[in-house]
Each structure stands twice: as C-alpha cells, then as structure tokens.
Amino acid sequence: MASVVLSEPEKLYIVHGVQEDLRVDGRGCEDYRCAEVETDVVSNTSGSARVKLGHTDILVGVKAEMGTPKLEKPDEGYLEFFVDCSANATPEFEGRGGEELGTEIANTLYRVFSSESSVDLKSLCINPREHCWVLYVDVLLLECGGNLFDAISIAVKAALFNTRIPKVRVLEDEEGSKEIELSDDPYDCIRLNVDDVPCIVTLSKIGYRHVVDATLQEEACSLASLLISVTSKGALTSMKKVGKGSLDPESIFEMMETGKRVGKSLHIALQKILDEEESLGTSRQKVGFLG
Amino acid sequence: MAPPARYCVPGERLCSAEEATAGSGTYTRHGFIFSSLAGCLEKRSEDSGLPVVSVVRDAESQLLPDVGAVVTCKVCSINSRFAKVHILYVGSTPLKSTFRGTIRREDIRATEKDKVEVYKSFRPGDIVLAKVISLGDAQSNYLLSTAENELGVVVARSEAGVQMVPISWCEMQCPRTHTKDFRKVARVQPQFLQT
Amino acid sequence: MPLDHRRVRGPEESQPPELWAAAGEVPVEGEEGEDKDAAPRDPCDLRPLFARAGLLSQAEGSAYVELGGGTKVLCAAWGPREAAEPGAAAPAGTGRLLCEFRRAPFAGRGARWRPGSASEREAEREAAAALQEALEPAVRLARYPRARLAVSALLLQDGGSALAAAISAASLALADAGVEMYDLAVGCALCRSPGPAAAWMLQPGEPEERRAVARLTVALLPALNQVSAVLGGGQGSSPDAWVQALRLGLDGCHRLYPVLRQSLLRAARRRDATAAAAATAATA
C-alpha cells in the first residue's frame, strides 16, 4: 500500500497528539475528514459515485448485466466486486503491484456484503434459475491518502443508491419458451434499497487510543487496526483486524463501541447528502473531477 | 541425578526481571522475563550479579549472520569490482542454508585500498574468513570485509588441484608445481587451528 | 470422424442433482433430521482437539492439529532463509514471514474442488493472508533481519473451524522449528445459527458452519493477552452481541492453550531424548 516514511520524532508527535485528542490536522479522535460525495458521475454506468475523503479519491461504477443465478441461490441475483489500484494513485501500483491490495479490498467487500440483509438480492432475480441481474461493482482508486476502506465503502453505498436497473418482464408464449422484454420507458427502472448497506469504519490503534479515518501519516504510526462494518441501525455485520500488530481484548471492545457510534452518524450524514442530490434531480450542478 | 529439566514454550513467564538477567531465547516485557523458544530452561549463576536465564534448544538454534560476526565463506565468482561468496558458517556454527554475500574491492584489505585487485586476492573456490560489516540494503546482500590481518583466504587450491601453502600475507605456493599465486591470505589465529 | 480424445464430451459445467430435487417440492428431510438430534449442544463446548508437534522429518518444524468432527491440518515451518529478493517489502531490520495455505482437493464436502482453479486460488490466498496476520504479531521478526521464515498449512479435511485450526497448527510448527516467538497464537472459531435467539457456538462443525448466519475466527496470544486476529462477518447484530462472541471465543482460546502447550513440551522432550540417545550411541 502507499506508505510514507516518518522519522521517530514525527511519529512521537503524532502519537502524543492523539493521546491529547488533537490530531495533526486539528481533528479529534472520532472525527472524519471533510468528505465530498457526488453521484451519477459516469454516464455509461447503471450507477456511479465519486468520494473524496481528504486526499483519498475513489470512483465507483456499477454496471448491471444479465446473468444466470448461482446454483446455491437460484432466486437471487448477486454482486461482483473488482478493485483496480491504478498507478495514478501511487507508482507502487504499476503493473501487478496493486493486485494484492485490490484482492484484499475486494475480499473485504464480499465479506461486508455477505450478510443477506445488506442488499435485497431477491429483487435482482428476473426468473429463478435462469436469469438474474448481476451487479458488477468496479472500484477505482484515483488517489490514496489513507483510510481506503472507509472511503470505498461510502462510495460503494452511494453508487448502489444511484444505481438504476431497467425493468424487464418475462413473457411466456404458449409453447413454454420464455422471452424477456425490456420496458420502453427509460425512466422505468428498479432502485435498490440501500438502507441496510453497511459502511466500513476503520479504527486505527495509535498509542493507547484509537482514531477513525487515519491519514497516511497516522497509518504509519499504527501497528494494528480494526475494520468493522456498521449498518445505519448500528448493527455490526463484519469485523477484521488488519496490520502487523495485535490488540488487547478490552481495546477491541472499546473500538467496536466507537465504531458503532461513528458509523451511525456517518450513515446519517451520507444519507442526507444522497437525498439532497436526489431531490435536486437534473438541475444539480455537476462538479465532476478536480472541481 | 540432576533434577528433571524444566521445559518451556514461547510466551511462558519465567521469572521477574529483577531476579535474573535475560539470556538467549528469552525476552523481557513488563518487568518479567518470558521464554521465546520451545526448549529447556537453563539458569546459570555468575559469581557477580544476577543469574542468567536462558532457554536452549538441543538442536543448534538457527543463527543468522550478524554485523560484526566472523563468517566462513566460499568464493563463487569474482569480477573487477567485487567477489561474490556463499556464507557457510557463522563463527563455528554451520548454517542450514547458504546466504549470499559480497566482498567489495575496497573492503579486501585495510591499506592501499586503491591498488587492490580482486583477482589477486580471491579466486572462485577459495575458503575465506570474513567479517560482516553490513546487512546490505534493498539492492545488495550481506556486505563482508577482509580488511584485517586475521581475515582472508584460509584454504585455496592451485591450478594443479593441490591445496596451496601460504608463504606471505599476499602469496601462496603450490607444493607440487611450486607456482606462486596471489591471494589475500589470512593469518589464522592459533585458537582456530584445532581440527 | 476421428475421435478427439482431448475433448471431454460432456457439458462444461455439471450440477449436483440435489439442487433440482429440492425444487421439485420433495422435502429433503434426512439430513435435517439427523442434524436436529445433534443440535442441542452446549454452545461453550469445545470439540476435542488433538495436537502433535514435530512429526515431519524433513521440515525444521511441523505440527498436526485435529479437531473432533474431522478437521485435520498439517503444518510445516522452515527457519530463517535468505530472502529471495533482498529487502523487498519488509521494512529494514526485520524478517519476513511467508504463509501458505493449501486445501487438499478432497478436503471439502461434496464435489471435488478443481485444484488451481481461480476461485480456489483466491480462497487459499485469502486464508493465507489471514494466517499471516494472525501469526505475525507472535513471531519476533526483528530477530531475523533480512531473512524469511516460511510456514505452510495443508488442510487435509475440512470439518469446520479450519482457519482457526490452521492458526494453532502453524504457530506450533513455528515454535517447533525453533523460531523465536513472543507467544503461541491460538485460534478459535465461532458461529451463530439462524434464528433470533440463537447463541454463538464455539468451534462449529462443518454442517453448523454451513448453515450459520454469522461466523467469527479469533486468535489469541494467551500469555500476553493480546488478540492477533479477528475475522468475521454475517448477519448484523449489536456490538454487544459481538463483544459477547469475542469474549466467548477468547475464552475458548484460553481453554485450548494447555493442549497446544503440552504437545509442544512433549515434542521438545522427545527431541532432547532422541538427541541424548544418539549421543550415547555415538560414544558407545
């Protein structure tokens, strides 16, 4: 992963700051950086979103394609995640360098979305055993500035909120052969209910405390972090320890409590932005990239 | 008969750090000494000060070449700038797998470094005593030096395939053909000569 | 027409008939029924665990862990070796721990996994990464500058809680190889079956794990009381429920620790005894 090199005094400065609940950029331990969320940025997708969190910049595109349901779940559609670590983010990602991180993030997303309640997969089914919608969620890292997981999960949720899947009907003629008919009206589409889509909150252990939304510099000071996914109702759907270090049990319990609290307010803020964008409709002024 | 030896596993608390000093195979944390190996506990009291607590494994625990360690190595290739070697022994302990090292031209001897020529100092196949001066950086492997009287070639064979005899600090002679070859010869310390 | 022997004359994909049988409104009772009998078990129950260290002659360290119910994991560890590409990835001054996790083609229930298939490789790589994260805090990598340590876990049979068993076995193998470690890492798995009031169960078996709505694997360094791995997911529940699960899992780790410790002590004694025997034989 993209990393910065810090000297010992620099690390000490950050650690002492965190101890005092005052971080290098003036935030408290439970504050996120200022985030920009914009949906519907790529017109060739079914849904897309771009999230800029500090210096982390993520673009997510969702494409809906028709496929066959998985054997174990004949009446459900499914999601496919792909994370592309482009060399724009850091030169280390050039060639196959970003592949490992990409699969790690994709695996984490699969785990986060493994819970049945997160997305109503049954609504993606067209006719059982034969056709369903497959949502290809492609994540692009445009810039890495720490806290990738949180930014990606916010972007995925925003993109899923923005996703519009065309309505189709299955017609059956008298011989029993089936035909799929696409609705004529381009605005006639299904929207996904994203109320239960979890967001990831990464809590990095720095010194004796933990912080949310660590910058690259803070990540360099942290040996271990806990990654938890929280729904808007405050339920935890997955958790994972990342990093080389270990955590003591009590601090894990504290981190989970903080994660739930922070995650809930994150969801509220995100939902507010998404609803606002939605209400503006086409009159919304598009900022686009580098705006 | 001696009391049965106490065996311990990594992470086992052995004693307080005030009662003893931590020896090999142990580490100290929060004022206690813990074992870091699965093996037999040993407590050696020294005349002065605290006893040393260490955990030993019967099998030689794997050593790694460390900065300052004297290693025995075999030259595998030379060029005008450096000689590449395989490290075979650290001190008197054989390594389970070989580690590659490099002796640069300027580290071959201590004086007249600019006049050193690698091919007049080492040849492939020589057994060399050297000291580890650095673990190397991202591009290189272990850096070794022979810039001491006690370091350098200890065993070398002539073109006739006979083991040569050192005749000076920079020459060796073949006992059969009497040809002389240049080498950076080590003056082997007498305590290492028992075989 | 000449016959092309290289081509398999059949459909590219095949599907087990059970899937279609269920759709035909034929209730499959057999399996459910037999599971129900076994269902009321104490959630705090640990399955019997058998561990043995130092059984492979060629590897520097090895361990075998078996859980009652059929999970069998074999681990081998190799002590410090020269890093293949010097200095890559690892920060200066520390060694690298390479972990590998393989599943035997016949490990799982049901159809044979095709070895080397993309999904299989992916799953193995993910497990290997989890293994590495669980073990790294336990190993004193600073003692092995510029070297690499390797540990490979082979899952012979998957009867549930496989990753947890692999973590325990791998840490035993590393300790048996004489690698300096801060502590052993003990793994323990949990799962929660569907149902609103279902409790978390320790060390689920394969059928329980398959039906579970949430799974969790934890690894503990018991002497230091540090958690080195937490990996889980599934149906959402309140943090308190997860805290409870974690506590239960960590308690399970504490209870498993003596077994692993004993096996390691036994291996150390055995090794010393054989060495002593060899020494007396040599002098005689």
TrEMBL record, chain A:
Main location: cytoplasm
A GO biological-process term: nuclear mRNA surveillance
Segments forming domain Exoribonuclease phosphorolytic: 32-166, 196-261
GO cellular component, one term: nuclear exosome (RNase complex)
InterPro entries for the chain: ExoRNase_PH_dom1, ExoRNase_PH_dom2, ExoRNase_PH_dom2_sf, Exosome_comp_Rrp42_subfam, PNPase/RNase_PH_dom_sf, Ribosomal_Su5_D2-typ_SF
Pfam families assigned to the protein according to its UniProt record, in alphabetical order: RNase_PH, RNase_PH_C
Compartment(s): Cytoplasm; Nucleus, Nucleolus
Key word Nucleotide-binding present: no
Top-level taxon in the UniProt lineage: Eukaryota
Keywords: Acetylation, Cytoplasm, Exosome, Nucleus, RNA-binding, rRNA processing
Family: Belongs to the RNase PH family.
Subunit-structure text: Component of the RNA exosome core complex (Exo-9), composed of EXOSC1, EXOSC2, EXOSC3, EXOSC4, EXOSC5, EXOSC6, EXOSC7, EXOSC8 and EXOSC9; within the complex interacts with EXOSC2 and EXOSC4. The catalytically inactive RNA exosome core complex (Exo-9) associates with the catalytic subunit EXOSC10/RRP6. Exo-9 may associate with DIS3 to form the nucleolar exosome complex, or DIS3L to form the cytoplasmic exosome complex. Exo-9 is formed by a hexameric base ring consisting of the heterodimers EXOSC4-EXOSC9, EXOSC5-EXOSC8 and EXOSC6-EXOSC7, and a cap ring consisting of EXOSC1, EXOSC2 and EXOSC3.
Record protein name field: Exosome component 7
Taxonomic placement: Eukaryota, Metazoa, Chordata, Craniata, Vertebrata
UniProtKB/TrEMBL annotation, chain B:
A Gene Ontology cellular-component term: exosome (RNase complex)
Membrane-spanning ranges: none
Keyword rRNA processing assigned: yes
GO terms for MF: RNA binding
GO BP annotations, alphabetical order: rRNA processing
Domain of life: Eukaryota
Domain S1 motif: 66-147
Keywords from the UniProt entry: Cytoplasm, Exosome, Nucleus, Phosphoprotein, RNA-binding, rRNA processing
Pfam families the UniProt entry points to: ECR1_N, EXOSC1
Cell location: Cytoplasm; Nucleus, Nucleolus
Self-association and partners: Component of the RNA exosome core complex (Exo-9), composed of EXOSC1, EXOSC2, EXOSC3, EXOSC4, EXOSC5, EXOSC6, EXOSC7, EXOSC8 and EXOSC9; within the complex interacts with EXOSC6. The catalytically inactive RNA exosome core complex (Exo-9) associates with the catalytic subunit EXOSC10/RRP6. Exo-9 may associate with DIS3 to form the nucleolar exosome complex, or DIS3L to form the cytoplasmic exosome complex. Exo-9 is formed by a hexameric base ring consisting of the heterodimers EXOSC4-EXOSC9, EXOSC5-EXOSC8 and EXOSC6-EXOSC7, and a cap ring consisting of EXOSC1, EXOSC2 and EXOSC3.
Cited PANTHER family: 3'-5' EXORIBONUCLEASE CSL4-RELATED, EXOSOME COMPLEX COMPONENT CSL4
The family this protein is said to belong to: Belongs to the CSL4 family.
Name of the protein in question: Exosome complex component CSL4
Organism: Grus japonensis
From TrEMBL, chain C:
Record's subcellular location: Cytoplasm; Nucleus
GO biological process: rRNA processing
Annotated SUPFAM superfamilies: Ribonuclease PH domain 2-like, Ribosomal protein S5 domain 2-like
Keyword terms of this UniProt record: Cytoplasm, Exosome, Nucleus, RNA-binding, rRNA processing
Source domain of life: Eukaryota
Main location (coarse class): cytoplasm
Region entry Disordered, spans: 1-43
InterPro entries: ExoRNase_PH_dom1, ExoRNase_PH_dom2_sf, PNPase/RNase_PH_dom_sf, Ribosomal_Su5_D2-typ_SF, RNase_PH
Domain Exoribonuclease phosphorolytic span(s) in chain numbering: 46-180
Single annotated GO MF: RNA binding
GO terms for cellular component: cytoplasm; exosome (RNase complex); nucleus
Family, similarity comment: Belongs to the RNase PH family.
Protein name according to UniProt: Exosome complex component MTR3
Species of the source: Grus japonensis
Origin organism lineage: Eukaryota, Metazoa, Chordata, Craniata, Vertebrata
